[in-house]
């Protein structure tokens, strides 16, 4: 049996990838090393290149050994740094080819050898070391240099953890080192195992860049090929970034578009010039929106950026700015007064590692202080948010860490408060923003309601059925209103959540007496109940075939309104078969056109709030009328057609039915900012649904054809149209978006708003609205989001995130209260009912 298959610990590649032809990097590959000069003081090192080539050779031989003989020794690489005291840094130390570099490197390698040979657990496995770089030490009065090195060991199988633990250290060298060591000169050794993904032997391209930033300069760097070509496959790139002594590096990604899966392509940022895991600041992949902060600040004057790519799916890559900024950041201090704000250093940039800030808050003598954290991102892999062993905020002797999506309040029992922020050497995050306020001890929440967790909220939010405190304390001891259900546990919940299959009361009160089917029965799409044994028995027992959908095996069935029709006119019995990565139709047409409905950017961390992120809803359209501005929303369904509501294009004061009166803005985010990504189009024609009923709002849908196609982009992208059989069950969560324009009033918000809503049971909705809900309509109510804000626009999209990670246009905003507000149901045009009309009219 191949020893690779059995319990080998060090296996950086899957067995299938162990192709010997890949293992040896030809010497000529070193030509691919890109040399870049940025300023006068740039050093380009090829040390790592040579090292990598040799590493490839060594590992190749190792692999050969493993295949041909029995595995014996495993190669392990460790990177580290140490300080060399009483030495002055010179320019030559930035250039690995200079004589001063080589001399000092030899001395460091000699010292490392002494240290390792002095340790009996290490000495037998030690191979050799090399110095990667030097930088200035930052002692106040002593001159010193920091050396960054790699050490190589060949470890017997099973002994790796012993060597790992001896090599993972963060301490003065003197404690472990023997008497031979020059204890005065070489100090502060930090080292650890190198991330094996950074030393893979299958890299085909290696790049090394070395830059030195200076004050007043704006420098940029980018991944190989950016922006003209995607980054190369199987590549390793690293950027050594330096600043003058006494400064920090600020690295700011302007564009960042890598493969979504960090196991394949990723970037790592280190607070060092060596890839020491104890000093890693972040690992990133995926696609970040341009307005998403992705800025890193070093603790000293160096930073290392690395990029690793695998063999397939190459993405555009990144571009970043870097500058040197003074060591002194705004961090801590005295805060005096009745109120004020403070934040982690350079928020919303990622805070630097190894920093401590202390704020001493003092309010007038007879008052108490409370601090409210509004944004709080102190997440760190592997750190328990209960004990906060790594980065934390300490206040009233309590440590806070992790991510807090709900505002957090801490109050004192005196007129002073001390807040400490501490970051350790590895992993950084965006940090926090906070405000402090003085309060009368007898009245912590003047004119507002005080939650158990000390948050003060608007009293109108008490007993409205929504948990605004975050601990439900605003929903206790309430008398339920007319539009509310009184749960048995005495909570009040909006009546619109009745009979939707979601237990909102917590004790199921809202889901009792809904009729519905018995436990052993199947609920048909037409709400009939049939015996559970009739499901998938090959016979239509529901009358609409829904008991024969979604069965184990996909088969061709006779066509009904609930079946999916393939291009070849055969119908299949799978629910939502399109674009689920499985070809269900014989002709593959269910997977043929799957470009719609994907958001370009990785979902943002900033999930709360009502403001959408730029590019978050790229199918959202803003329809303007000259002199009135934004009046309706619409959705992009391809590069020429958009969908809106028929009631938006009915003649009233203005002839809204004329294509010429409309200005169509696509890729718009802020109504006040027509950005580079925004496209303006006129209309060629408007096609309202022929059966639109202006009295009942039945069939409230219209199509608009653009005068010329728009280029699709990160900010303009079509949403998927659900097929007639697509199911949006009651209780499903969907999103509405818009600037808040209603039939009655103009737009309210500048920035695109979003709110999560839930599909309401149509029977319940009809009773609440005292109006008929036709089969062409669907109801939804606001789950989260604004209090007074009006979210969504007439004609705008109701977006549903399908199981295949694509968004589907479930509805078009039609009528109701005009816009989505708490406790008010909104009525939407049910798009599934119009799929064939859209197809017939537009070809989409
Ligand atoms: C170890 O020595 C070989 C040459 O024998 C060299 O190519 C390799 O880069 C060295 N390893 C390190 C970590 O410096
Ligand atoms: C660097 O960029 C900043 C902000 O973008 C700008 O204000 C400054 O003038 C730039 N400096 C140089 C030297 O280009
Ligand atoms: C903060 O204090 C000032 C007076 O110092 C007051 O005018 C202001 O309204 C306060 N702000 C808040 C948010 O309480
Ligand atoms: C509700 O009432 C009970 C008893 O009357 C009281 O103990 C509790 O503090 C009240 N809760 C809230 C949130 O007002
Ligand atoms: C909707 O509510 C009615 C009772 O008001 C119930 O009979 C019906 O089953 C519910 N529909 C769904 C899909 O839950
Ligand atoms: C999504 O689809 C997969 C495969 O069809 C299925 O196993 C899974 O249960 C579905 N998930 C949801 C949430 O519907
Ligand atoms: Ca940290």
Automatic annotation (TrEMBL):
SUPFAM superfamilies: LDL receptor-like module, SEA domain, Spermadhesin, CUB domain, Trypsin-like serine proteases. One of its GO terms (biological process) is proteolysis. Residues 606-843 form the Peptidase S1 domain. Residues 194-325, 331-439 form the CUB domain. Disulfide bonds join 451-469, 463-478, 480-492, 487-505, 499-514, 517-529, 524-542, 536-551, 559-571, 579-594. Gene3D superfamilies: Low-density Lipoprotein Receptor (4.10.400.10), SEA domain (3.30.70.960), Spermadhesin, CUB domain (2.60.120.290), Trypsin-like serine proteases (2.40.10.10). This is Suppressor of tumorigenicity 14 protein homolog. It catalyses: Cleaves various synthetic substrates with Arg or Lys at the P1 position and prefers small side-chain amino acids, such as Ala and Gly, at the P2 position. It comes from Synaphobranchus kaupii (Kaup's arrowtooth eel). Pfam families: CUB, Ldl_recept_a, SEA, Trypsin. Belongs to the peptidase S1 family. Exhibits trypsin-like activity as defined by cleavage of synthetic substrates with Arg or Lys as the P1 site. SMART domains: CUB (SM00042), LDLa (SM00192), Tryp_SPc (SM00020). GO terms for molecular function: serine-type endopeptidase activity. Residues 74-193 form the SEA domain. GO terms for cellular component: membrane. It comes from the Eukaryota. It is found in: Membrane.
